[in-house]
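Sat 14:20. Reprocessing the chain from the morning session after the first attempt stalled halfway. Input below, unchanged.
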Amino acid sequence: MPDGAPLTASRLDGLSRAVLAWGARRDLPWRRTGDPWSILVSEVMLQQTQVSRVEEAFKRFVARFPTPRECAGAPSADVVRAWAGLGYHRRALALHRTAALLLERHGGRVPATRRELEALPGIGPYTARAVLALAYGHDTVPVDTNVSRIVARAVAGHRLRPAETQDLADRLVPPGRARELTQAMFDLGALCCTSRNPHCDRCPLVRRCAWQRAGGPDPAGSPRPQSPFAGSDRQGRGRLLAALRQASLPEDDVAGAAGWPEDRQRSARVAAALVAEGFARWESGALVLA
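Finished this time. Tokens:
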């Protein structure tokens, strides 16, 4: 390592104790429950979406669909409507399919193994680990960009491969404290160990941080920038779905609703994609939510 500090059990224990003593700092609605379904919903919503946009949507969604049974029993159009404001609407359809599979395969319960969780639509290794840590207390830390940055900087002092990051993150977990540590790590990365201009002066790991001891090289674990939203097909998709939540769209109105009144070919392509993906269908010459 650049700072010469070996990754001993004692050093890892000191790092995790410092994070736990600092604690979680954000009061978020999904942190007030241990219900596995609610936690799964929150994690699916948080994929590629800012926390501030998820808070109200999460409360609205779980009030409407408090269990997998209510979600699976509702038309997919209702689930998409409840997803309003979050974007990436494929996640809503995947969650609707997941709810149905939870009833079919697991008696309406969210499973407690990675293999079973990752067999569900839209759930990968990160989301599976998040459910296991936050709902079931398994000794693992789900590695998002915030956690990855902390592990690379404070623990290793240099960039890591994903498997190395996950291994070190899991080694930080004191038995039975995965939920507390995960929430604190999320907040530490969001509030102190930020991608640019980190607030090292208020970080609980500053005296133990390998990155600081090495002189603060280029930030490790910074996320890649996302392509612009304005003017993209994603923006048009969002406009169409927002309009469809209110009413059906006659074919001649689709281009205007998508925001491209002079580009009917583009709007038709995006509408066709919504139909192919199961979000909408054509009915009597009008586009409607599926």
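The chain has two domains: 7-220, 233-289.
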